[in-house]
Amino acid sequence: QVQLFESGVGLVQAVRSLSLSCAASGRIFSWPVMGCLRLPPVKEREFVAAISWSGGTTYYADSVKGRFTISRDNAKNTVYLQMNSLKPEDTAVYYCAARSRSVSGTKDYDFWGQGTQVTVSS
Q1: Closest CA to 85 of 97, 68, 104
Q2: Residues 8-38: tens digit of each pLDDT
């Protein structure tokens, strides 16, 4: 089992930056791929970014490529999502999640955090 907990300030103006953190605990070695997904208002859940255990492989949704950066510090069991040049359409509940393999654009994850609201005002 893996437990995930997101944190980060949730209200920001457009073109500003925001960093989200996700602290993991439990059997992290068995579910090493970490992802970030989001649920915008009145839309389906979207994939945002994913990162391998080593951090050497990352994958981003086209909508955030060049603006968002996912990284991890395994010594702290923490994954970070740095979000720059934010847009109102980035408004969503952001979730971190864990899966056992394959860094890709999939939304199929085994464990999920509780989510944290990010609101970008215009």
Answers
A1: 68
A2: 877 777 778 999 999 999 988 888 999 999 9
